[in-house]
Amino acid sequence: MKLGLLELRRKPGRFSIAGASLVLLTVLLLFLGGLLDGLYLGSTGLLRSQPGDLVVYSSDARDSLIRSRIDPEVRTLVDGVDGVARTGGLGVALVGGEVEGKDDLVNLSVSAFELPVDGMPAEVALGPDEAYADRSLEAYGVRVGETVGVGPERTPITVIGWVDDTDYLQQGGFFVVPDTWRAVLAAARPDANLPPGTFQALVVELAEGADPGAVAAAIDAATDGATSTLTRSEAVQALPGIKEQDSTFSAIIYVTLFVAGLVMALFFALLTLERIGLYSVMKAIGASTRQIFGGVVAQAVVVALVSFAIGAVAMWLLTFVLPASIPVAVLPARGVQIAIGLVVMSALGAAISLRRVVRADPASAIG
Amino acid sequence: MLAFTEIRRAKLRFALLGGAVGLLVFLIMFQQALLGSLVKSFTGALENQSATVLVYSEEARKNISGSVILPPQQEAVAAVDGVGASAPLAQGTFTIEAAGDDVDASVFGVTPGGPGEPTRLVAGRLPAAPNEAVASKEDESDGFGLGQTVTSVDGGVALTVVGLTEQSRFSVAPTLWVTYETYEALRRAANPDAIAVLPSALAVVPAEGVTAADLAEAIDEQVEGVEALTRSQAVNEAPGVASVNQSFQLILALAFVVVAVVIGFFFLILTVQKLPSLALLRAVGAPTGYLVRALLIQVAVVVAIGLVLGGLLTVGAVKGASSGLPVAIDPKALALSAIGVVVLSLVGSAFTLLRVARIDPSTVTNRQTTGGMA
Fold first, then answer.
1. Where on the phi/psi map is residue A248: left (φ > 0), alpha (ψ -120 to 50), or beta?
2. What is the chain B residue with the closest CA to A20?
3. Taking the C-alpha atoms of A168, A172, A173 and A178 in order, what is their torsion angle to the nearest 10 degrees?
4. Strand pairing of A155-163 and A130-134?
5. In sequence order, what DSSP letters do the residues of B126-159 get, joined into one string?
6. pLDDT tens digits, residue range B126-185?
7. d(CA B319, CA B307)
8. pTM recorded for the entire structure
9. So what's the pLDDT on residue B271?
10. Are the beta carbons of A52 and B301 closer than 8 angstroms?
11. Cα–Cα distance between B318 and B310 in angstroms, integer?
12. Is B213 exposed, middle or buried (0-12, 13-18, 19+ CB in 10 A)?
C-alpha cells in the first residue's frame, strides 16, 4: 500500500487521465444531486416547516393542497378526535408580487397559517398587511421592512421578518394572516374563493404520546371519510412529481456511479497490464499479492478522493454562474453520499485487476 | 487485420471501454427521451391547439394555471387591430373518477369552432355539447376510452369521451377538452363559493397577413395587464419547462464531454503503451495511414459497441419507465445523440491520432529492446 501511495506522490501525472474523468463525473453527479435536492427543497418547504404531525385534506382533493377544502364543520369534528392537541388552518395562493425597483414580478406562495411555522416566534402577531417572507426571496429584491404588491390587485404587504426553507412548488414562501390570504386568493382566482373560516387544509398537533397513524385513522373515521389525513412526510411525498423526480434522478445518479466504477476498472486494468512484469519482480523479492493489491486499491481510493475534491470545488464555482431558474442546492449530506459512492465504485473498479495481480508469476522475473 | 487482432487479444480491455461508453450513451439517450417526453407531457396541450397567440394575465408569469383574464381585457384584446378571432380558454385541475379510480386530470374549456381547440384528434370528434369531452389517447386504457364516461368527483359532473387526441397532455396528467360551458359547470360544482368563473387565457388567431409575433406585440402594447405569447413562446417559456430544458442540456453536455474524455484518454493510454511496437511497425514499412486506420477502426468498434449497448439499454429502460410519465423514444433526437457521440469520440481521439501520425520510425534504433543502442 505504501509503495502505491509513494508512486501516486511521485508520478501524479500518471493518474491524471483517470482523475480527469472522475472529476467530470463528480461534477455531473453533484449537479444531478444538487438539482434533485433543489427541486425537492423548493417544492416541499411549506409542508416540511409546519409544526403539526399530521396534515388533513378533503378526501376528494387527492392530497392536493390547492384543491382541498376544509369547512368549519369538518374542523370541529377533527378538533374533537382523541389525540388531537390543536389544529391550525393552512392555505396557499400562488401569485406574483411586485417588488419596488424590479421590473419582473416575483413568484410568491402566499400562505395562510394559524400555527407558527419553523423560524417564527412562538407567539406571532401579524397585522393584515404584514408578512413573514422566505429568505430565498432576498435574491429577488425583497427586504425586511419593505412593501411587496401582492397578487393581481397589488395588495401592499410589508415584510416584517424572514423564515427559511418554506418555499412551495418553487415559489417563495410568504406567510400572512388567513383573511389576507383569502382576499389574495379571491382576487387571483375568483373561482377558488373560500368563505371565512374555511381553509384548504388543517395542520394537526398531537397530544403527548398519541400515535400519528392511529390519530390519522381516527380523524378520517370521525369525518366519515370526508378527509384524507396524512403524516407530514406522507404529505410531502404526495406532492405532485416528488416521487417520480426522486426515482428518476436517483436512477441516473446510480448509473453515473456505475460508469465511474467502469472507468476506474478500465484504467487500473491498463495500468496493471503495463506493470505486470514489475509485479512479478516484486513478488520474487517477497512482496505478497495482498500488498500489491492493497497498493492498487489505495491508489484508486486516493484518486477518487482527490478527484471528488476538485470536482466539488468546480461544482461550487459552477453554482455562481448558474441562472437562478435552475434550482440547484448543494447539500453536505449529498456530497458525502456521492463521495462515498465514488470511492466505493472506484475501489471495486480497481479490484477488477485482482485476477491479474494474483496471476503475476514471480518465476517470470528471471525470464 | 491489426486492429481486430488486438481487440481479439484484449477482450476485457475493449469490453470495459465499450461498457463504459455504452452506459454513458444510455445516460445521454435516456435523458434525451425523458426530456422530450417530459416537455411534451407538460405542454403538449398548448402546442397542439389551434390558437397561434395565447394571451395570459401579466400576473400569471406565463403560467396558464395562474392566469385569469378579466372581462374588460377580453373586450380590449378582441378590439386590437390584426385579431382574426379570439375565444376564451380555461384550464383547471380536477379530481376525476375514471374506471373506478380517482385521478388528477387537467381540463381545458374551449369554444366549439373557435381558436384553442385541440388539433391532434386521432379518433372520434371534438366536443360540441355539454358533458362531452375529448381525452388523451395516452390515457385510453385508464378509463378514458372512446364512449366511456368519467365523472368529476367534486360535484359529480359526468363527461362522455367523444374523441381522442395525441400528444396533447398538460402537466403530465390525463387531459380533457370540454366546451367552455361544461368547464364553468365543473368549476361551479367543485366550488359553490366561486365568485366567478373567468377564462385562464384568450386563444387568438391573427387576421390574414398578420404574423403571430406582430399580433402578440400589438396586444401587449395596447392592452393593460396582459401578456401575449406566440404558441411556441407559451410552450418554451412555460414555468418549469425552461429550467427543465436548461438543466437537462447542462447534464447532457457534461455527459457528452465525459464520453469524449473517456474515449480520448483511454486510446491515448493504449497508444502510449504500444508506441515502441508502433514505431517498429513504421520502421519495417507500415505506412502511417495503416496505423491511423487501425486506430480509427478500434474507436469505431468501441463507439459501435457503446451505441448498440446504450440503445438497447434505453429501449429497455423506456419500456420499464412508462408509469406515470409515458417516456417515448424520439428517433430523430436519438440519431442526433448517436451522431454527437461519434463526432465527440473522434474529437477525443484526435490527439491520439496525431501522436500515431507523428511516430518517428528512427526511434527504434535507439532502443535496446529492438536491437538499437540506447
1. alpha
2. B261
3. -90
4. parallel
5. ---STTEEEEEGGGGGGT--TT-EEEETTT--EE
6. 999 999 999 999 899 999 999 999 999 877 899 999 999 998 999 888 999 999 999 999
7. 18
8. 0.77
9. 82
10. no
11. 12
12. middle
Identify the residue among B63, B93, B254 best suited for mutation to test binding to A, counting A beta carbons within 10 A and taking the highest: B254
Closest CA to B43 of B150, B173, B157, B132: B173
CB of A348 less than 8 A from some CB of B? no
**A144 CB-near residues (< 8 Å, 6+ apart):** A133, A159, A160, A161, A162
d(CA A170, CA A188): 18
Can you tell me the distance from the alpha carbon of A122 to that of A108, in angstroms, rounded to the nearest whole number?
Answer: 24
Q: What CA–CA distance (Å, rounded) separates B217 from B203?
A: 15
> Are β-strands B226-230 and B53-57 bridged in parallel, bridged antiparallel, or unpaired?
antiparallel
Q: What gap in Å lies between CA A181 and CA A93, rounded to an integer? A: 7
pLDDT confidence bin for B321, thresholds 50/70/90 = low
CB interface of A with B, residues 101-120, below 8 Å: 105, 107
Closest-CA residue to A60 (of B216, B93, B322):
B93
Total number of residues shown for chain A: 367
The 10 Å Cβ neighbour count of residue B128 is: 11
Burial of B342 (0-12, 13-18, 19+ CB in 10 A): middle
Cell numbers describing residue A40 = 425537492
Alpha helices per DSSP H over B191-325: 212-222, 231-236, 241-273, 275-283, 288-320
Contact indicator for A84, A78 with CB cutoff of 8 Å: yes
Rounded distance, CA B276 to CA B151, Å? 77
Q: Are the C-beta atoms of A276 and A356 separated by less than 8 Å?
A: yes
Distances in whole angstroms, Cα of residue A32 to Cα of each of A39, A256, A298, A334, B314: 11, 10, 27, 10, 19
Q: Say yes or no: A26 contacts chain B, CB-CB below 8 A.
A: no
pLDDT in tens, A177-215: 999 999 999 999 899 999 999 999 999 999 999 999 999
pLDDT above 60 (res B56): yes
Helix (H, G, I), strand (E, B) or coil at B225: coil
Instruction: Quote the minimal CA–CA distance from A359 to chain B in Å.
Output: 16
Do B258 and B25 meet the contact criterion of CB atoms below 8 Å apart? no
- State the complex-level ipTM: 0.71
pLDDT tens, position by position, A283-312: 888 888 888 888 888 888 998 999 999 999
Q: Which residue has the cell 377558488?
A: A192
The string of pLDDT tens digits covering residues A322-367 is 877 678 888 999 999 999 998 998 888 888 877 777 877 777 766 6
Q: Contacts of residue B188 in chain A, CB cutoff 8 Å? A: 191
Chain A, chain B: beta-carbon pairs less than 8 Å apart = 151
Look at residue B246 in the predicted model and tell me its pLDDT: 76
Q: Residue ranges of the domains in chain A?
A: 2-43+242-365, 45-237
Q: So what's the pLDDT on residue A345?
A: 87
The pLDDT confidence band at residue B373, using thresholds 50, 70 and 90, is very low
Shortest CA distance to B278 belongs to which of B371, B363, B345, B350?
Answer: B363
